[in-house]
Design a protein that fits this description.
The protein has five helices and six strands, in the order βαβααβαβαββ. It has about 120 residues and is an alpha/beta fold. It has one domain: Rossmann fold. The radius of gyration is 13 Å and the shape is globular.
């Protein structure tokens, strides 16, 4: 599974996930300042799941009716690079969640999955 990290995901987290075997790239590596709608287009064209702290992606999906491959919205406190990395490493490599065609909202105490089809 491929992932694309929004600009609000620290590059140190992205680099550590790459070293942990996750196929991920950062929007920052592609082009700084991309609009969220452009990130959705990248997700759809590359079959990559977006990872973001930005809840605006929900609006893009449900109000603007754009269809990303999948979206993970982190609603956890960005306490530190280690904390964000630990949460994402578990989510992407150890959980049994399938992210394609879903909006997955991750909180400290629960994970909610909504189908996008």
């Amino acid at each position: 599974m491929k992932f694309v990290a929004d600009e609000n995901i620290p590059l140190k987290v992205v680099d550590r996930l790459k070293r942990a075997g996750v196929e991920i790239k950062s929007v920052t590596e592609l082009q700084r300042g991309l609009k969220d709608e452009e990130v959705v287009k990248i997700s759809a064209s590359e079959n990559a799941v977006i990872i973001t702290f930005d809840k605006d992606f929900g609006e893009i999906i449900f109000r603007k009716l754009m269809k990303p491959f999948g979206v993970i919205i982190l609603r956890i406190p960005p306490k530190s690079v280690d904390y964000i990395f630990g949460c994402l490493k578990w989510l992407l490599t150890e959980s049994e969640i399938r992210f394609e065609r879903k909006l997955v909202v991750v909180r400290e105490d629960k994970i909610r999955e909504l189908k996008l089809d």
